[in-house]
């Protein structure tokens, strides 16, 4: 299993010309299911929240868009969401939080992968001097078309619920994408000094609200992460290192 993280680190750009044909998404028995069947469609439009300013951001379409019909998650039923945030995608019942069974869709394709998670992106990310700068590359510049490899690869998977900011964990592919985010962060930490395991920074992503909206105080290492039904609560400090605190794994 130790070679998996290495392939994770390079997997964003490695398959950028056709992520739908990568081992993760080629639809064979070992994949996470295939792309959605092709249906003609436009790419998603991200709508900034009211009162923020900024213009809607038109993203490129993938080469799927329809139901996933191949591989282990073929015809999987998704129950939660969508909550919203994409133009023209209405929320499900009860604002997207109600029971809403429907079939998994994906819209994988090269355009967003190449634009937001190419080899230059990774090199640029790993070269950032501090966590504030790192996050402006990984998460992007708020309310601009620079949505970073985090957002970019969410939309490069796209579909439903993959394209929904709030319920994208309902697509199993969410978990390998976030594994990849964890992997680049851990490797960036290992490339720098010990402050990378303790500094939370002071930039737009260092506050207790997303991009400091509404304005909030800076996050602290002692802040509790409430895991809800998914597990026991922890603190930021305990999950700053993959081999310190409560965690015990590393990437090669
Ligand atoms: C998925 O649904 C399609 C269309 O209804 C069907 O042709 C296909 O056999 C289904 N595949 C699986 C694995 O259930
Ligand atoms: C590669 O990614 C960077 C962002 O990290 C972007 O500025 C650049 O345009 C991308 N290259 C291509 C060919 O899209």
TrEMBL record:
Coiled coil ranges (UniProt) are none
One Pfam family name is: Tyrosinase
Annotated GO MF terms: metal ion binding; oxidoreductase activity
- What InterPro entries does this protein map onto? Di-copper_centre_dom_sf, Tyrosinase/Hemocyanin, Tyrosinase_Cu-bd
Q: Which UniProt keywords apply?
A: Metal-binding, Oxidoreductase
Domain Tyrosinase copper-binding as annotated: residue spans: 171-182
The protein here is known as Tyrosinase copper-binding domain-containing protein
| Organism this protein belongs to | Podospora fimiseda
